[in-house]
Amino acid sequence: MAKYILGIESSCDDTSAAVLANTIILSNVIANQKVHSEYGGVVPELASRAHQQNIIPVIDTALKRAKISKNELSAIAYTNGPGLLGSLLVGSSFAKAMAYSLDIPLIEVDHLQAHVLAIFADKPDEEKPKPAFPFLCLTVSGGHTQLLKVNDYFDMDLLGGTIDDAAGEAFDKAAKILGLPYPGGPVINKLAQDGNPERFSFSIAHLPDLQYSFSGLKTSFLYFVRDNLKENPNFIAENLNDLAASIQAAIIRSLTDKVKEAIRCYDLKDIALAGGVSANSGLRNAMLEIGEKYRRNIFLPPLELTTDNAAMIAICGYFKHLTGDFSTIRSVPYSSARQRVP
Ligand code: KG4
Ligand code: ZN
Known about the structure:
Blueprint: E1 4-9, E2 14-21, E3 24-32, H1 44-66, E4 75-81, H2 85-102, E5 106-110, H3 111-117, E6 135-140, E7 145-152, E8 155-161, H4 167-177, H5 184-192, H6 215-231, H7 235-265, E9 270-274, H8 281-294, E10 297-299, H9 311-322
Parallel strand pairs: 1-4, 4-5, 6-9, 9-10
Antiparallel strand pairs: 1-2, 2-3, 6-7, 7-8
The structure holds 5'-O-[(R)-(carboxyoxy)(hydroxy)phosphoryl]adenosine (KG4) and zinc ion.
């Protein structure tokens, strides 16, 4: 009999609920919070208030779309961290109360592991090939940039990460410099499609090993735009597409250089991409080119599973359910991986 897992995600500014039947997505509802766009970033207090308003209708809609009653659920999986604590508390408190009242298992999920495992969830009648363990995964989101060796569902070695900004932050900050709304990644991606990526060149950081850094790139972009605006007040408007294409190309180059290095250092045949920035069409194409050149199999998540969503939480819940890895209502949310309470 199928296991029906309800997933709840509330780590940042998206309230999401999903129902999976084993690995098949029956519903995946996401309420984006528009309230942050005018502030140029997520305002934590506004995010937790919006989660409180959204959580009941979002879960209700997810159950209705899946045509599942809450009494048929096998377990509830929720994001326990990392993320904004006020936001996490809304989802985790709700998950705990619901699991307790239905007397079904509660499963805590790590948001970053969920991004990686999103690739294992399927839409009905659309089963895709899956990477084989161990595989290399580049996780690129608004809060994290990580190269991982994924040995098993919940056994991942961190090979490298960012020492300052995340790749998504680099996109968001570049967009802010150009006067574009938050989140900037999708906007830059769209503008870049009609721009020349070689028009302006920005130098990227060359850190040892598999480490990333994006803060220098952001500063050089800021100074470049500021200096040109002094000469020509219409500089941004007249060059918007080329600016977007050029900064996007620099971020992608920075990401893919280290993927190539990881290929040289670790003999991993399968490579996956995960996280919000994996929605970027330029990055997706660059990864496919790497796959061809280095004869590696590239696994790209479907677009709806790239940015924050609860289907990725539910798929983790499913794999944990298989081994009986349940949690209790005493489990404490954590804001960063370092603060995780064992
Ligand atoms: O994974 P995610 O939804 O949230 C976090 O866990 O952080 O990632 C959000 C990030 C934002 O920085 C957003 O600008 C970026 O993903 N993003 C993109 C694209 N879509 C979302 N960046 C570049 N191109 C995109 N198409
Ligand atoms: Zn995320």
